[in-house]
Write a structure and sequence with these properties.
The protein has helices spanning 11-23, 34-44, 60-68, 84-93, 105-119, 156-167, 175-182, 191-205, and strands at residues 3-7, 27-31, 48-52, 75-79, 97-100, 130-132, 137-139, 144-147, 150-152, 172-174, 215-218, 222-225. It is an alpha/beta fold. The structure holds calcium ion.
Length: 228
């Protein structure tokens, strides 16, 4: 059963989350601050982290960066912050998703399920296992990317995005389709997720990220992978 680490300093919200998650057969740990969160994550290896950004001892963004130093565990941010900049900052720091407080428990659980599912390995039966370009090579079966002889580390969300684009190599993949395939069926309008994650893929894989040759934007429509 998946183990979830809740990082939240509001006792009432922690209680509500614990009750709801346990009722759905999750194992639950809770940390009231960032230091406890980093300690528990290291000792318990959760399958997902629900993370409040406003913690008493440190900024939640630093918790994300601390976790991303060593783990690819899915992180869903619980944000009281409404501005899109701060959400993008959280995604940029390595979060996989966010829900804005106050949130409905059903929405949160759907996003948690999607985050856990994304972290599971997916096979691509019938497809060629490797993709070579001038700039990088990808082994889909082994889940490795090398660029100029060096391994490139991708997060689970980046992998899924890459896989969907490669599966449709040369074809336009619409924004909504990408969001639904990578994040889940309840997504479709979060185009800022795509901007953030495409920027990350380009930064990691393109020779010149500001003039991409492989991960192309089709303005207003979606994205296209060009093997070239
Ligand atoms: Ca808080």
């Amino acid at each position: 059963m998946p183990r979830v680490l809740i990082v939240e300093d509001e006792p009432q919200l922690v209680r509500a989350l614990v009750i709801n998650l346990k009722a759905r057969k999750y194992e639950v740990e809770a940390a009231p601050d960032g230091a406890a969160a980093l300690r528990l994550a290291a000792s318990r290896h959760p399958d997902a982290v629900l993370l409040d950004l406003g913690l008493p001892d440190m900024d939640g963004l630093d918790v994300i960066r601390g976790l991303r130093g060593w783990t690819r565990v899915p992180i869903v941010v619980l944000s009281a912050r409404q501005t899109s900049d701060e959400k993008v900052e959280a995604l940029d720091a390595g979060a996989d998703d966010y829900v804005t407080k106050p949130f409905g428990m059903d929405e949160l659980l759907a996003r948690l399920r999607a985050a856990v599912r994304r972290a599971e390995p997916v096979g691509m039966p019938g497809d060629t296992a490797t993709v070579e370009t001038d700039d990088f090579s990808i082994d889909l079966a082994a889940k490795t990317v090398t660029r100029r002889g060096r391994d490139v580390h991708l997060t689970p969300t980046e992998w899924h995005l890459l896989e969907v684009l490669l599966r449709n190599s040369g074809r336009l993949v619409g924004q909504k389709q990408l969001l639904q395939e990578v994040w889940g069926p309840s997504y479709g309008r979060e185009t800022n997720y795509l901007r953030v994650y495409m920027a990350q893929l380009r930064r990691k894989l393109e020779a010149d990220p500001s003039h991409p040759r492989h991960f192309l934007t089709v303005p207003g429509m979606g994205y296209r992978f060009h093997q070239g």
